[in-house]
Design brief:
Elements (H helix, E strand, L loop, with lengths): L1 E7 L3 H4 L6 H16 L3 E7 L9 H5 L16 H4 L5 E4 L5 H13 L2 E9 L1 H15 L4 E10 L3 H13 L3 E3 L2
Parallel strand pairs: 1-2, 1-4, 2-3, 4-5, 5-6
Helix pairs in contact: 5-6, 6-7
């Protein structure tokens, strides 16, 4: 059984760039510690937008250009970049492609557990956790709370509570 760690959107724009927060900066060492202690596969996701971002539905609702492909803000933060060997680009909050890829792979090599860390707890982490839980209702899906940060500390806590209600294990490492 394989254990998979999903590192969600640890990109410059979410840490110290256009949408960065002090809380996001603070979790970088915790995310690195989780990666180093993980004894399985590590998959990074990258929020990926095009230069026409502001004309998209997301751009109209969040009119802050971020994670434009090829920019510094789109890159994985320098402290974690060396661990990003497997990366899935996603055009929106949750990655259907990630769920579909893991579903196919699970048929050949069963998945025992999926753990998520990263940014933002209340947007992309929760979206991916719920997609994965819907895809794999019998596989343990967990989130490491101190290796995640939300848009605000309050929305981070709210997202963790919502995930608990959906049978996603919330742990602290």
């Amino acid at each position: 059984m394989q254990d998979i760690l999903i590192v969600v959107d640890m990109q410059n724009d979410f840490i110290d760039g256009a949408l960065g927060t002090p809380e996001a900066v603070l979790i970088v060492p915790a995310v690195e510690n989780v990666i180093l202690s993980h004894n399985g596969r590590v998959i990074f996701t990258k929020d990926t937008h095009s230069p026409n971002y502001l004309t998209t539905q997301e751009g109209k609702n969040l009119p802050v250009e971020h994670c434009i492909k090829g920019t510094r803000g789109w890159e994985i933060c320098p402290a974690l970049e060396k661990y990003a060997k497997e990366v899935i680009e996603k055009p929106t909050f949750g990655s259907v492609a990630l769920s579909e890829q893991l579903k196919k792979e699970n048929e050949a090599s069963p998945i025992g557990k999926i753990t998520l860390v990263g940014l933002c707890t209340d947007i992309c982490v929760i979206s991916n956790a719920l997609l994965l839980k819907a895809t794999f209702p019998e596989i343990e899906i967990s989130v490491i709370s101190n290796a995640c940060a939300g848009v605000t500390p309050e929305s981070h806590k709210n997202a963790l509570e919502a995930m608990k209600m959906c049978q996603i294990k919330v742990a602290n490492e």
